[in-house]
Design brief:
By secondary structure, this protein is of the alpha+beta class. The chain is built from eight helices and five strands.
Length: 310
């Protein structure tokens, strides 16, 4: 009786141990499979990340360029000034303006002189000059001392936003150019090389255009433009100068008329000499015709009736 009850307990323990070992083995194998799949997926993700790393950078270039703020220390202004003066002598004032330009390290970019006319009897001149922006006010003060100021105005245009925009676009395009150059270096087929080369050429052309516009704006900010209008204080039609001018003009006109008349007579003599044979033939024909007419004209005879009446 004791033996019958002991055998079933031993077999139950054995079966329990066998089932536990099988479960433990299956768990261990599943853990190894999961670890292997995880280890295989990691290199694959790393490889894909390495391949797509450049494209991800290219997509984030514009966002980083737009997010990066460009510091502006002061407003970027393009200043233009205009001043009108009444001076005693326009020629002397032009010489003085040239000296002021040299002192202020500026440039003369335009000069237009207007001689006196009937509608405007005063001698006028217009001068355009470029001066460093920080020397604009001292230059205007020196110019105002050359005569009587009729008008004076200064205009300013803030181009800071345009400068920031151009600089951001230029930075973005330069990064795109570098990335396209990397893609071109590792491109395999000729078709890909040509496509990337065309895109790279377009980017470089845009970079040159934006760079030129940026330099032009910076140059306008660095140098201010001044337009100076000069007008003579004394009219050229005053009594005393007008008399001298009239005498001089009359003398010039008379001498010119005498020379023109002499040249005209000389030309007439040359024409007569050249056409003299034709003139002689024409005169001979007229003389012969008149002589022939005299010799062959019918003479008047007196009739008997005229005699009786007498």
């Amino acid at each position: 009786m004791y033996t019958a009850t002991k055998l079933p307990r031993t077999s139950a323990l054995f079966i329990s141990a066998l089932l536990g070992g099988m479960i433990f083995t299956s768990c261990a194998s599943s853990q190894q499979t999961a670890s292997k799949s995880a280890s295989q997926s990691v290199p694959q993700i790393a490889a894909n990340g390495g391949v797509n790393q450049l494209s991800a950078r290219e997509n984030n270039i514009s966002q980083k360029a737009e997010a990066a703020p460009i510091a502006r220390s002061r407003p970027q202004l393009i200043k233009k000034a205009a001043i009108s003066l009444t001076v005693n002598s326009v020629d002397k004032t032009i010489d003085a303006v040239s000296q002021i330009i040299n002192q202020q390290q500026g440039d003369l970019i335009g000069l237009k002189q207007q001689q006196p006319k009937n509608d405007n009897p005063r001698y006028t001149a217009t001068i355009q000059l470029r001066i460093p922006q920080d020397r604009l006010e001292p230059t205007l003060e020196q110019l105002a001392k050359l005569g009587t100021v009729n008008s004076r105005n200064i205009t300013a245009e803030d181009v800071g936003d345009r400068l920031v925009d151009f600089q951001a676009r230029l930075t973005n395009l330069q990064k795109t150019e570098a990335n396209l150059q990397k893609i071109m270096d590792r491109a395999g087929s000729i078709r890909d090389v040509l496509s990337v080369s065309q895109e790279l050429s377009n980017v470089r052309q845009t970079i040159e255009q934006i760079d030129a516009q940026l330099k032009n704006l910076k140059n306008q900010v660095a140098y201010s433009t001044i337009t100076l209008n000069l007008e003579a204080a004394v009219s050229s039609t005053s009594p005393q100068p007008a008399l001298g001018l009239q005498v001089k003009e009359t003398w010039n006109n008379s001498t010119h008329s005498l020379s023109a008349f002499s040249v005209g007579l000389l030309k007439l003599g040359i024409w007569l000499i050249v056409y003299s044979p034709y003139l002689l033939i024409f005169v001979a024909l007229i003389y012969g015709f008149r002589r022939w007419r005299r010799t062959h004209s019918p003479r008047l005879t007196q009739t008997p009736e005229s005699t009786i009446s007498d």
